[in-house]
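// run 5 | inverse folding | seed 20
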């Protein structure tokens, strides 16, 4: 009977390890998301894109920023899969 209890404990410990791993992965995901949102321009870009698709030039005008700055911020958002190209150089948010 002790082997059954030991098996039950082992299975429970394996489940706890799996849950801890998933929790760690979730925490890492959240940390990366918060990093992506850590710049005011990136937050503003996402707000603008939630209203509808915009070209880089239009984002540049609305943000009052240079094209290279907008492109850098968009690249970070793209790397985190928060923004995608909906068409020819027109960024949009992912659902």
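// decoded
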């Amino acid at each position: 009977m002790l082997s059954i209890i030991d098996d039950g404990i082992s299975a429970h410990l394996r489940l706890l390890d799996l849950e801890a791993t998933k929790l760690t992965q979730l925490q890492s995901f959240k940390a990366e998301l918060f990093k992506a949102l850590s710049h005011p321009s990136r937050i503003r870009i996402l707000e603008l894109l939630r209203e509808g698709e915009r070209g880089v030039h239009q984002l540049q005008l609305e943000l009052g920023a240079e094209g290279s700055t907008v492109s850098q911020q968009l690249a970070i958002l793209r790397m985190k899969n928060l923004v995608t190209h909906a068409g020819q150089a027109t960024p949009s948010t992912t659902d």
